[in-house]
Design a protein that fits this description.
The chain is mostly beta strands. The protein is 0% helix and 56% strand.
């Protein structure tokens, strides 16, 4: 079995920063794309940022310039640095891992709340 574990969520003031971490473990050896999705109350889950095994990145327009995704292949980890946070960034953030044969694994989600 593959485990995907997230951490780093919490409550921050508008304009503040958080860094989310996600690590994959278990029966997985070759990871293709890793990414972050979020789901706000009443909304569908949406892509926030993704990064390929080669380092190519993709961001949602709403976070471009504020968020930075990175990965550590040796640690099978992906990170999301979130700066200049806005109340509309409030959501449950989910880590998504895709392996080389197309299997997808999700983390349990971590709550990010941006509020004064």
């Amino acid at each position: 079995q593959v485990q995907v574990v997230e951490s780093g969520g919490g409550l921050v003031q508008p304009g503040g920063s958080l860094r989310l971490s996600c690590a994959a473990s278990g029966n997985i050896f070759s990871i293709n794309t890793m990414g972050w999705y979020r789901q706000a109350a009443g909304n569908q889950r949406e892509l926030v940022a993704a990064i390929t095994s080669g380092g190519s990145v993709n961001y949602a327009d709403s976070v471009k310039g504020r968020f930075t995704i990175s990965r550590d292949n040796a640690k099978k980890s992906v990170y999301l640095q979130m700066n200049s946070l806005k109340p509309e960034d409030t959501a449950v953030y989910y880590c998504k891992v895709r392996d080389a044969i197309g299997s997808i694994y999700w983390g349990q989600g971590t709550q990010v709340t941006v509020s004064s």
